[in-house]
Design brief:
The chain has about 180 residues and is mainly α. The chain folds into two domains: about 110 residues, no CATH class; about 45 residues, no CATH class. The chain contains seven helices and no strands. Helix 1 packs antiparallel against helix 2, helix 3 crosses helix 4 and helix 6 runs antiparallel to helix 7. The two termini are about 30 Å apart.
């Protein structure tokens, strides 16, 4: 895939999602389903790698770029991830005066709700490829319940899920890793 085209796909996903993981359905549709330059497994891996490392939530866009086109793709992902933030700063200075206006507040609430919906859809699509046995279903249920009822840092959830999967594999409840 052409690096500039990859950059445009990544930029479209980041700029239209308003939240880190809300761009997953857009990236999946463009890169996995339509152009077939990425697999669901690679997308899952990019997300896990970015959540297990420090940095912004949307850092997985850099990993996606790398998986599609190597180092030039990672650079395209980094540029796509940072460009909207650099553009929005002057806009926020201008729009900050109107943030108390009821229409502006309603618009921001709509953006937040739509981002939440996009993230939920992305999670469900990615779960189809990974939640495929009793152990992963249990991990998924426990994780959702834990995150909905407690304030837990995501790194502990990731590490706990990894430990549960490794434990299940060690007693042959799931296929070995």
């Amino acid at each position: 895939m052409n690096i500039f085209v990859l950059f445009l796909f990544l930029l479209k996903a980041v700029a239209t999602s308003f939240s880190g993981f809300a761009s997953i359905p857009i990236l999946r549709a463009d890169l996995v389903l339509h152009h077939h330059v990425l697999t669901d497994q690679q997308l899952n891996t990019a997300i896990v790698v970015s959540r297990a490392t420090p940095g912004p939530v949307a850092l997985y866009v850099v990993s996606v770029g790398y998986m599609v086109a190597g180092t030039p793709g990672a650079i395209a992902g980094w540029l796509a991830m940072t460009l909207p933030a650099l553009i929005i700063i002057p806009l926020l200075l201008f729009a900050g005066r109107f943030v108390t206006h009821p229409r502006v507040r309603s618009m921001l609430q709509a953006i937040i709700l739509s981002s939440g919906g996009l993230m939920w859809v992305a999670a469900m699509e990615l779960a189809h490829g990974t939640v495929n046995d009793a152990v992963t279903v249990a991990i998924c249920v426990v994780t959702v319940l834990l995150l909905c009822t407690r304030k837990v840092d995501s790194i502990w959830v990731i590490l706990g899920a990894a430990a549960a999967e490794l434990g299940a594999a060690s007693v042959h409840l799931v296929a070995g890793l």
